[in-house]
User: What shape does this take?
Amino acid sequence: MIPTLIRFAMLRIRLGLTRPLRQRAMAKMSSAGQAPMSAIFYHRVADTYPNDWTIGCDGFEHHVNHCRKNFDLVSLSEIQTRCATARSFRPAVSFTFDDGYAENCDFAIPLLVRHRIPCTYFVSLQHILTGQ
Assistant: This one.
């Protein structure tokens, strides 16, 4: 088995070598109005009591900064509009949160608000009705 550090170095080299090809492909798709779109979903952003659905605050901030540099940051309804019209001239990302974890209001949501990044926050109605 190849050690993790070597695998990471090999991946970085491969990404560096293929970057011009990927950039040309993206430019071609964008000019044709076929740039990719994604709805990124998170469950819980927190540094305490991590579970399989948790990302730490530093990791989330890294994701946000990467997306700010590389994508149009749009609402979920804008992604839906672009899908319906089949027109996307720049790669786009929409941030969404599932399950309404309260901890998301401590760091993730304020970070997105500070950077004026739209997001969709899905709340579990059962938890509201039962007070959980």
